[in-house]
Every structure is written in structure tokens, then in C-alpha cells.
Amino acid sequence: MSTSNGIPRRCDVLVIGGGPAGSSVAALLAKQGINVVLLEKAQHPRPQVGESLIPHVWKYAELTGAAPLMEQQGFVAKAGGITVWNGKIHRIAFAEFGFTRPALHVERDIFDELLIKHAERQGAQVFQQVTVREARLELEQPEVNYLDKRGGDTCEGAICCRFVIDASGSSAVLAGQFKSKRLIDSSMRFLSLWGHFKNARYVGADGRSYAAREVVKVRPVTFVTSFEDGWIWHIAMRQVASVGLVINTDRARAMDKNQREGYFLHTLKSAPYLDRLLDGAEYLESSFSQRPDYSYYSSKLCGENFYCIGDAASFVDPIYSHGVLNAFYNACITALAIAESLQNPAYRARHAQLCENRIRQFYGFSRSLALGEFGGDGVDSELVSRFMRQVPRVELELMLAAAFMSERSDNFHQLAENAGLNLQPTQARAHVMEKLML
Ligand SMILES: Cc1cc2nc3c(=O)[nH]c(=O)nc-3n(C[C@H](O)[C@H](O)[C@H](O)COP(=O)(O)OP(=O)(O)OC[C@H]3O[C@@H](n4cnc5c(N)ncnc54)[C@H](O)[C@@H]3O)c2cc1C
């Protein structure tokens, strides 16, 4: 039964948020004939950061059925990465690791809209401009209260369901309710500032720079360079390049909020190579965005009638382009756990615990890898070791090479050793380059 606004009063699974995590879990469940409602606060296409995708995402996109749509979209295929870290230049090429499908640079507004439409086509009932305010999980049947902002008026409503999936990204609706959101410890707090540039040159796999219009012919790399206060990314897409920087939050605190955009532009102009890539490029002022303290985790993730996934569970760091991968992975295991639980409610608690372990494993893996230290902040080292034993070797080797490029490899070796994996040093695949021809 629906209310006058068309939103049903009941469903089996209520998903909060239609980013990569929410849309993917909704697609997977709806595909199996499960009655899913997805409520999304914004109206797609909406801006989102996180345009660099690593090749591992394809296996999850195959499961959700979104892979052919991603192919048809014609996103920019990227060849690999080049980093200039403390003056040392390294290059990796995905093809050398045996990946058969390319990594991508995607416009996230287009990518995320594609995913939410796919969820709808699979049978999920999707309502945009509807914000979830609260989920009452203590009831026999959970109830989700929302604000419907469609058509200019705001009205309240409620839906009863059997499971609530929180995929609300950094809003982390359930973690807010549980008061379980924890910032990663103080030395690991970062602020990111980013924006888009038109006609920016980009870096190809050969270490040369190319005009923006070449990007569909000559594959770019994701270009990363460290600077005095942090590091910078450059991601070339079809119409614009996304350029952003990451600094420690303490450094940002010394600055007035209004000074941050000036600092951002000044830093890009003076950073190694960036000055040349952005010479003559047009800065799109309206694209300037910032996110402070983006590294956090929730100490409570899954229960008998709720699951927190994607950024609503944790986000560590953008350095290895892990965010969308984490969202996809969490969506796939959650869909499995909920489909099983609906069939066999007696095992609900067990499935929730298994899923929580998996989500925590991936968080621990990302945290240990990205922040260059092991343990701490809710990381269970035994879970991480077990996870590493299950990750396909090709993916581990890519991560090892990537970690080596940004001088974070010691920790990764330690992780592999704890897991009993005898990974051969793959530094050879992080090729040293003498110079870049930008
Ligand atoms: C600086 C930075 C750079 C990054 N770079 C990369 C990168 O290069 N590659 C990569 O893979 N990842 C990157 N990420 C991470 C990536 O952006 C996220 O991990 C990814 O978007 C997570 O997907 P999600 O679906 O969990 O959340 P989101 O994409 O945030 O989607 C959540 C959705 O929930 C909606 N929502 C929020 N609150 C409510 C509510 N109350 N009710 C209803 N809907 C709600 C939002 O509108 C949104 O659409 C980066 C992150 C940062 C901070």
C-alpha cells in the first residue's frame, strides 16, 4: 500500500542513500525479487568527489549488472598511475599486473546517476529528494521516518520494513543515532580541498603531458604529487580535470576558512609539475569543495535488522582510490546476508555478524594500507590477515606496488607477513622514472 505521495508504507528492505553503495545493494536485492525502497536526499545527477576507479571494481559491477552500462558510457580508461613522492618518480601500469579491463576516470555525477537508474530498472522503488531523518530499530518492525521535499513542499512520512541499510555516505545516519562514529586518531586527520579545471593538460603513461582533448585517444594516468604539507591528485576526465589536495587538519586549522580556496590555488600553482599542467586551464570556481576530517569509522555496523555500508560504515583515505570499491564490496556482501536472512530469519544474527566482520576487515585493510601504520582505531589485525589471504593475488600485488610508490610499503609487507603470504617484492613493477616530460 502507498501513501498519497506514492511512497509505500511497507517494504522488505529500506535503503538510505543512492550513492554507489546504496544503489548497488538495492539493485542486487531487487534483482532477486525482494521488495526494496531506496530514499535519496539529493536529486541525481548530483556532484560527488572520487573520480578515480581501480580495475577491481569491474567484478562487482558484473554482479550488480551495471558493467555493460559503465562500458556504454565511454568513461575515460586510465593506464595506471604516476607519483612524484618526495622528489622520486614512479609509474605503474595496470596491464602489467594482468588486469584485462581498464581502470576508469568517471564523472561521479554521471556514474552515480547511472547506478541509481540501474537499481530502479532492477525493480527497486527509488524516491529522490526524500531525506531520512531517523530509523527506529528497537521496534518489532523497524520504522524509518523521512522528509519528502519533492514538489516544493516538505511533508513527513514513515515506512515500516524488515531491514534498514544505511548507505548515506558521510552523513552516516545510523552511526549518528548510535553515536558510534569515531574520527581516526589525531595524527591521521586530514582535510581535502578540490575543484575542477577545463582544458588542463594531463599526464600519459609515458610521462609526457597531453592536451585535454587527447584524453579519449591517449590514456591518462592518475597523477599524484607530494608537496610540503601533503599530496595532490590530478584526474583527467572527458570535459574537466579534477584536482585536489590533502593536508593534515592541524595545518588547515591554522588557516581561516575563507583563506582555503586561495591556499588551494596557490599550492597548485607552486606544486611540482602541477603549474605546467594547469597553465592556461580555466578554474571552475563553482566546483570548489572541501571536506574536513574525512577519515572515520563506526564502531557498530550490522545487527539483526540493520546494516551500515560504504562511507556510512567508514572512510579512510583517497590515496588508493578505494572508496567506490569499498562501497561495491560492502553492497555485495550485504545483499547476500539480507537475502539469506529473509529466507531463513533464524540466522539473522549470524549473517549480520559475518557481514560486520567482512566490512571491518576491508576497513582494517584500507586503513593499514593507506595510513601506513598497522592496528589501532577499531582494526582487528587477525581479521585483516584473514582478509589478505582471500584477496586475489593480482589485487594485492597492485596494492603493494602502489603503496611502494607513496612510500607506505613497509606496513603492507608487515601485513602480508602476518597473513603468512610470501609476496615477492613487486617494486620492479613500480618503475622508477628519471623525469617527466611535461
Ligand atoms: C577527498 C576525497 C577524494 C576521494 N577520491 C576517491 C577516488 O578517487 N576514488 C574512489 O573510489 N573513492 C574516492 N573517495 C571516496 C568516495 O567518494 C566514497 O567512498 C564513495 O562515494 C562512497 O559511496 P557511498 O555510496 O558509500 O556514499 P556516497 O557516494 O556519499 O552516497 C551517499 C548518498 O546518500 C545520500 N544521503 C545522505 N544522507 C541521506 C539521508 N539522510 N537520507 C537519504 N539520503 C541521504 C547522499 O545524498 C548520497 O547520494 C574520495 C573521498 C574523498 C573525501
From TrEMBL:
Gene3D superfamilies: FAD/NAD(P)-binding domain. Keywords: Monooxygenase, Oxidoreductase. It comes from the Bacteria. The keyword Protein transport does not apply. Pfam families: Trp_halogenase (PF04820). Coiled coil: none annotated. InterPro entries: FAD/NAD-bd_sf, Flavin-dep_Halogenase_NPB, Flavin_halogenase. The keyword Oxidoreductase applies. This is Tryptophan 7-halogenase. It comes from Methylomonas rivi.
